[in-house]
Specification:
Layout (H helix, E strand, L loop, with lengths): L1 H28 L26 E2 L2 H7 L5 E4 L20 E3 L4 E2 L12 H12 L8 E4 L5 H13 L4 E4 L2 H6 L5 E3 L3 H7 L2
Parallel strand pairs: 1-6, 2-4, 2-5, 5-6
Antiparallel strand pairs: 3-7
Helix pairs in contact: 3-6
Organism: Rhizobium gallicum bv. gallicum R602sp
Protein name: Rhodanese-like domain-containing protein
């Protein structure tokens, strides 16, 4: 009988520890990530805030509702990098799939830009919005992408008044809609390559 009680007590203790660790893990993963005061300077991949002051955070339904207004869709996802072990005698032809009609600015979510990158970024955004700082602009990348958060923040700090951040990004879009292959924005790509 005492062996059975000991086994039951050990099982109960193990269950209690497992429940505690599960609760602690869930609480940790659901912890609110605070918005930085400026642009995020840490790693570009990781848990992001659920808010972006000065912008509207939208899910897929929100983006679908916004589409009839022809927003500027600003994809800031990074370009694929050629793997180091990729054979030198083979042609490297990566593709980038995105929301139809999106302008792709690879790497435009970085906190630090080169000397003229910021100028090119805002000039291209001004061209895409036709000089209308109230035209809806949606920034996106992939889930847990600080780059799209930074791009939205950069636009808010510049005075754009209809900025939307779509944190679900292309992954969320592709759950329901087709994505298309797009090329990098010409002016941005030329400047980013410097």
């Amino acid at each position: 009988m005492s062996g059975l009680i000991g086994t039951l007590l050990r099982a109960a203790a193990s269950l209690a520890i497992a429940l505690f660790l599960t609760a602690a893990s869930t609480q940790w993963s659901l912890a609110e990530v605070r918005e930085p005061n400026g642009l995020w300077t840490g790693p570009m991949r990781g848990q992001t805030p659920t808010t972006l002051r000065g912008a509207v955070v939208i899910d897929l339904a929100g983006l679908e509702a916004l589409m009839p207004k022809n927003p500027v869709l600003l994809d800031v996802g990074p370009a694929d990098k050629k793997p180091e072990e990729f054979p030198k005698d083979r042609l490297w032809l990566p593709t980038h799939r995105s929301i139809p009609g999106a302008a792709w600015f690879p790497g435009a979510g970085a906190a630090a830009f080169g000397p003229t990158q910021e100028e090119v970024f805002f000039r291209r955004v001004e061209e895409l919005t036709q000089g209308d700082s109230s035209k809806p602009i949606v920034t996106f990348c992939r889930p847990e992408c600080w780059g799209s958060w930074n791009a939205g923040k950069r636009l808010v700090m510049k005075g754009y008044t209809s900025v939307y951040w779509f944190p679900g990004g292309i992954d969320s879009w592709q759950e329901v809609h087709d994505a298309v292959e797009i090329k990098p924005d010409g002016d941005w790509h030329s400047e980013a390559a410097k």
